[in-house]
Design brief:
The structure holds three protein chains of three kinds. By secondary structure, chain B is mainly alpha-helical. Chain B has helices spanning about 5-20, 25-50, 60-75, 80-100, 105-125, 150-180, 180-185, 185-190, 190-200, 200-230, 240-250, 255-275, 280-295; strands at about 135-140, 230. Chain B has a single domain (about 5-300), classed as ABC transporter involved in vitamin B12 uptake, BtuC, CATH 1.10.3470. Chain B is built from 13 helices and two strands; from the N terminus they run H-H-H-H-H-E-H-H-H-H-H-E-H-H-H. Chain C is an alpha/beta fold. The longest helix of chain C is centred in the C-terminal third of the chain and has 16 residues, at about 180-195. Chain C is globular, with a radius of gyration of 19 Å. The chains are: A mainly alpha, B mainly alpha, C alpha/beta. Chains in contact: A-B, A-C, B-C.
C-alpha cells in the first residue's frame, strides 16, 4: 500500500517535470510544425541561468520567496533572448520545408548552443539546492514529501490550466488554434502568421527554460542535461500526439506512472520503459494518442 | 558491373591498402574508424533516397559492436571473419524484427520510432551487468584465419579488413542501386501510393531497405569495435545516431565514393578540432551543417531537393 | 456472355454517409464504358472499390471469375486491373522514360522483394517495353523531360501510360481529360482510346464532358447519390430524363451537338 502511494507521488512529480518541459515543445510543433531539438538547450540554459541566479541571490541572504521568483524570471529572460535570436535569425529561413529537414536544422542549432553553454559556464557542475532546502519536507502518514516537489506539481497544474484557458478563451489563443489547424487558411484570413510564429517560438523557449529552472534545484546542473531531456520530451509529445497540449499532459502522466512503477518494482526497466511505451502507443495509434491521421486523397 | 566509377573506386582502395604500411599510424587508425562509420552512412543513404531518415541507426551499430565484444568475452572464438558474420547476422535479425513495425511509418514518426528503438537498447545495455553496464567492456583482439598479429601489424590488419569489406560493400551497394528495389527508392519517395498501385508492396520494399541498412550498420559497429577495442552503451545513444545522420548530410546521397570520402573528412576534421580547438567541435559541426542545409541543398540529395533527378 | 467484371450489391458507407448503395452490373470484355454523374455521386468511390483502394462495406466484385472483393490494390493490379487518377499520380523527380521504366519493371518483376534487390531495373526488356508504350501514347517528344515539368495533357497521358505497363485487361480511367484544355481533350482521348483498343483492353472511364462520353463510350453508366440511375447506350442514357435532371442540368434534344454541360 505504501509502495503504491510512493509510486503515485513519484509518478506525479515526474509527470509534472515532464509536462513543464514538454509543453513548450509540443506548442512549437503544433503551431509551426517545427520539432525543435534545440528545446533541450532552452532547458539547459534555463537550468544554468537559474542555478547562477540562485547562487548569487541566496549568497546575499535576501528573502526566500524572491529567490523562487528570480529563478523563474531568469529562465524566462534567457528563453526570451535565445528564442528571439533563433527564430528571427535561423528558423524563419526554413518555414515550409520538409518537417525532417527542420528537425535537422534545429539539431544543428542544438549543437551550436551546447558549445555556447560550455563557453559561458565551463564544464563545472552547479547546484542550486537552496530552494529545495527552503521548501522543506512534510509528512503524510509514513511518507516524507518534499515541499519543492509539491510546488513542481502545482506549477504543472497551473501551466496546464492557463494553457487550456488561454487557448480557448483569449483572442490570441484563438489565433494560435487557427494557425495550428492550417497555416495557409490562417494567412488567408488575414492573420499575421509571422508574428504568431515568433510569439509562439519565444513562448515555447521560455517554457523550456522554465522547465530547466524548475528542475535545477533537484538535479546537478551539468553538461548533458539538455541531451538527456530532449529525448524524454520527444517521447512524451509523440505519445500524446505532436502539437497537442492535452496530449503532452496525458503523455507525461503515462510516462511518469510507468517510470515510477519501474523504479519501484523492476529497476532494470527504468531507463527504457518510456521508449517501450512510446513504441507500444505508436503501434496502436500511429500519430500519438490524441492526433488523427490525415489520409491522402487521390 | 565494371563501370568506370567502380574501377576507379577499386583502384583507390587497392592503392590505400598498398600504401598503408608507409602511412603514419594515427592516419591509419583514423581511416579505419572513418570507413567503419561509412558503413552505417551507406545504410542511411539507402533509406534516405527513399525519403526516410532514421534517427536510431545506432541500434544496429551497437548490436554489431556488442555481438563481437560478447563473443570475444564469453566464448573462445577470436576469428574476425566469424565474428563479423555473427555481427552482421544479429544486426540483420534485429533489423528484420524491428522492420515489421518501422516499415509502416514515415517522416517524423519513422525518425522518432527508430530513435525509440535505439534508446530501448541503450536502456537495456546500461542496466544489464552481464552486458557491461555503463562502462561497457573490452573487445578481445581478433585473429585473421588463424593469423594473430600484434601491435602495429594488428592495426594494419584491421585496416586491410576494413578496406576489403568497404570495397566489397561499395561494389554490392552500387549493384543494389541499379536493382529494381534500389531504383524504386525515388518513386517511393515521390509517390508511394502510385508505386503500390503499380503492383508492389512499398512496406516490404522499405522493410528490405531497413534490413540492408541494419546489416551494414552492424558490420560498421563490429569493425569499430575491432578498431577501438572497446564497446559501451554510448554506441546506442541517440547522439551517436545523430552523428551518422550528420555525416550523411555532409557527404550527400549522390555517390558511394562521397560516403567514404565524407566519412574520412568528418573524422579528420573532428580529430583536428578536438585536439587543437577544444570546446568548439560541436559549434563547428553545427554551423557547417546549418550552412549546408540552408544554402547547399543541391548537394544533399533526396530529402532536400524534390525536383532532383534520381540516380541512374 | 461471360462478364470480365461482375459487381453485385456493392455498398460503401463512411460513417453516416452512404457513398455507394446496392450497385450491380456486368461488364463484357473489350467494352468501353463511360461513367457520368455529379461530384459526390459515388463515381470515384466505385472506382476505388474496384481497384482496391477502399474495401466495400457490402457486396462482391468478381474479375475474370475470381472474387477480388476487399483485396489490396497491388494484388488487384497483379490480377490484371489498373487505373489512372483524376490528379495524375506520376513520379515528378524522374523523366517520362524513367517513369515508364519503373512501371514496366514492377509489372514484369516477380512478387518477391528479394528478387527486386537482385534484378536490375533497366534491363533491355524493360527499356524496350517502356519505349513501346511511349510510342503507343505518342509522347516520344517528352521522353527525357522531367515529369514535374510536363504540360497537363502530357501528364495525363503519362499517368495512363504508366497504368498500362503491365498490360491490364481492365483499365479504369478517373477523369482522363480533367484539367486538359478544351482544344486538347479530344486529341488526348483519341490517342488513349486507339492505344487501349489496339490491345482489346476493357475500359471504364469517368468523365464530366458529355461530348467525350458520347463520342468514345459504347455504354454509359450514370451515377446519382450512390446508385446507377441509367445504364445504356450514350444516346439513350444522355436522353434519360433523370440523367438530364441530375447530371446534364439542362434539357437537350436527343442527338443534338451542343456544348458540353457540367453538373
Amino acid at each position: 500500500m505504501l509502495t503504491a502511494f510512493a509510486i503515485l507521488t513519484d509518478a506525479l512529480v515526474y509527470a509534472a517535470y515532464l509536462f513543464v518541459v514538454a509543453i513548450g515543445l509540443t506548442l512549437i510543433f503544433g503551431v509551426m510544425k517545427v520539432l525543435n531539438v534545440a528545446h533541450g538547450s532552452f532547458y539547459a540554459f534555463g537550468a544554468y541561468g537559474a542555478a547562477t541566479a540562485v547562487g548569487v541571490y541566496f549568497d546575499k541572504g535576501w528573502p526566500v520567496a524572491g529567490g523562487f521568483l528570480l529563478m523563474l524570471l531568469a529562465a524566462m529572460l534567457i528563453g526570451l533572448v535565445i528564442g528571439i535570436v533563433l527564430e528571427r535569425g535561423i528558423l524563419r529561413l526554413v518555414y515550409g520545408k520538409d518537417e525532417v529537414v527542420v528537425v535537422l536544422v534545429t539539431y544543428a542549432v542544438f549543437l551550436i548552443l551546447e558549445d555556447l553553454l560550455v563557453l559561458f559556464w565551463g564544464t563545472d557542475s552547479y547546484s542550486a539546492y537552496q530552494p529545495l532546502a527552503v521548501a522543506g519536507n512534510f509528512e503524510v502518514g509514513a511518507l516524507v514529501l518534499s515541499g519543492y516537489d509539491m510546488g513542481l506539481i502545482a506549477l504543472a497544474v497551473v501551466l496546464a490550466a492557463v494553457a487550456h484557458w488561454a487557448l480557448k478563451h483569449t483572442r490570441y489563443g484563438h489565433l494560435l488554434t487557427v494557425v495550428m489547424f492550417d497555416r495557409e487558411t490562417a494567412a488567408a484570413f488575414g492573420i499575421n502568421v509571422t508574428v504568431v510564429f515568433t510569439f509562439t517560438f519565444v513562448l515555447g523557449a521560455m517554457l523550456g527554460a522554465l522547465g530547466g529552472a524548475a528542475m535545477a534545484p533537484k538535479i546537478s546542473v551539468t553538461l548533458g542535461i539538455g541531451v538527456e531531456v530532449i529525448v524524454l520530451a520527444f517521447a512524451v509529445v509523440v505519445i500524446g500526439g505532436l502539437g497537442s497540449i492535452e496530449g503532452a499532459l496525458i503523455g507525461a502522466l503515462i510516462v511518469g506512472l510507468c517510470r515510477a512503477a519501474a523504479v519501484h518494482l523492476v529497476p532494470q526497466l527504468e531507463l527504457f520503459v518510456i521508449y517501450a511505451v512510446m513504441a507500444v502507443v505508436l503501434v496502436f495509434r500511429p500519430y500519438g494518442l490524441l492526433t488523427q491521421a490525415q489520409p491522402r486523397k487521390i | 558491373m565494371w563501370s568506370r566509377a567502380n574501377l576507379v573506386g577499386a583502384l583507390a582502395f587497392l592503392a590505400l591498402a598498398i600504401a598503408a604500411p608507409a602511412l603514419p599510424a594515427w592516419l591509419v587508425s583514423l581511416a579505419t574508424i572513418a570507413f567503419s562509420n561509412a558503413f552505417v552512412v551507406l545504410g542511411l543513404v539507402i533509406l534516405w533516397r527513399a525519403g526516410l531518415v532514421p534517427f536510431g541507426q545506432a541500434l544496429f551499430y551497437a548490436t554489431g559492436a556488442y555481438s563481437v565484444a560478447l563473443i570475444g568475452r564469453y566464448t573462445g572464438l577470436r576469428d574476425a571473419f566469424l565474428m563479423l558474420t555473427a555481427a552482421a547476422a544479429s544486426a540483420g535479425i534485429v533489423a528484420f524484427l524491428v522492420g515489421y513495425l518501422l516499415a509502416r511509418y514515415r517522416d517524423i514518426f519513422f525518425a522518432m520510432l527508430s530513435l525509440a528503438m535505439s534508446m530501448i537498447l541503450y536502456g537495456v545495455l546500461v542496466k544489464t551487468q552481464t552486458l557491461g553496464s555503463t562502462d561497457g567492456f573490452h573487445v578481445q583482439t581478433p585473429t585473421f584465419l588463424g593469423v594473430a598479429p600484434r601491435g602495429g601489424t594488428l592495426n594494419l590488419a584491421v585496416f586491410w579488413l576494413v578496406l576489403g569489406l568497404s570495397a566489397a560493400a561499395a561494389l554490392l551497394i552500387s549493384l543494389y542501386f541499379r536493382s529494381i528495389a534500389g531504383v524504386l527508392a525515388v518513386p517511393v519517395r515521390d509517390n508511394e501510393i502510385r508505386v503500390e498501385f503499380l503492383g508492389i508492396s512499398v512496406t516490404r520494399l522499405i522493410h528490405l531497405k531497413l534490413v540492408i541498412s541494419g546489416i551494414l550498420a552492424g558490420i560498421g559497429g563490429a569493425l569499430a569495435a575491432f578498431a577501438v577495442g572497446h564497446v559501451d552503451p554510448n554506441m546506442a545513444y541517440w547522439t551517436t545516431s545523430g552523428g551518422f545522420v550528420f555525416v550523411t548530410i555532409l557527404s550527400g546521397t549522390n555517390s558511394i565514393a562521397a560516403t567514404f570520402v565524407g566519412s574520412f573528412m568528418f573524422e579528420l576534421v573532428r580529430s583536428i578540432a578536438v585536439d587543437i580547438l577544444p570546446g568548439t567541435w560541436q559549434f563547428i559541426l553545427g554551423s557547417v551543417l546549418l550552412l549546408t542545409i540552408l544554402f547547399l541543398p543541391e548537394g544533399l540529395g533526396s530529402v532536400f531537393s524534390r525536383l532532383r533527378r534520381g540516380m541512374p | 456472355m461471360n462478364a470480365i467484371l461482375a459487381v453485385r450489391n456493392l455498398e460503401k458507407t463512411f460513417g453516416s454517409v452512404v457513398a455507394a448503395r446496392d450497385i450491380s452490373l456486368d461488364v463484357p470484355a473489350a467494352q468501353t464504358i463511360g461513367i457520368i454523374g455529379a461530384n459526390g455521386a459515388g463515381k470515384t468511390t466505385f472506382v476505388n472499390m474496384i481497384t482496391g483502394h477502399i474495401k466495400p462495406s457490402k457486396g462482391s466484385i468478381r474479375f475474370e471469375d475470381k472474387d477480388i472483393t476487399g483485396l489490396p490494390s497491388r494484388a488487384i493490379t497483379r490480377l490484371g486491373i489498373s487505373r489512372s487518377f483524376q490528379v495524375a499520380q506520376i513520379f515528378p523527380s524522374l523523366t517520362v522514360r524513367e517513369n515508364l521504366c519503373a512501371a514496366a519493371a514492377i509489372a514484369r518483376g516477380k512478387d518477391s522483394i528479394l528478387a527486386c534487390a537482385l534484378q536490375p531495373l533497366h534491363s533491355p526488356a524493360t527499356i524496350a517495353e517502356a519505349g513501346g508504350i511511349i510510342e503507343l501514347f505518342q509522347i516520344a517528344g517528352y521522353r527525357d523531360v522531367l515529369a514535374s515539368t510536363l504540360p497537363q495533357g502530357a501528364r495525363k497521358l503519362l499517368d495512363i501510360a504508366m497504368a498500362v505497363g503491365g498490360w491490364p485487361r481492365l483499365l479504369l480511367l478517373d477523369e482522363p481529360t480533367s484539367g486538359v484544355s478544351v482544344e486538347e481533350k479530344f486529341a488526348i482521348m483519341d490517342v488513349v482510346m486507339s492505344a487501349l483498343r489496339s490491345r482489346k483492353i476493357t475500359i471504364l472511364f469517368v468523365e464530366h464532358d458529355m461530348d467525350i462520353v458520347a463520342r468514345f463510350a459504347d455504354r454509359v453508366l450514370a451515377f446519382y447519390d450512390g446508385t446507377v440511375i441509367a445504364d445504356g447506350t450514350p444516346a439513350a442514357a444522355l436522353a434519360d430524363p433523370q440523367v438530364q435532371a441530375f447530371i446534364s442540368g439542362t434539357k437537350r434534344a436527343a442527338g443534338s451537338q451542343g456544348s458540353a454541360t457540367h453538373a
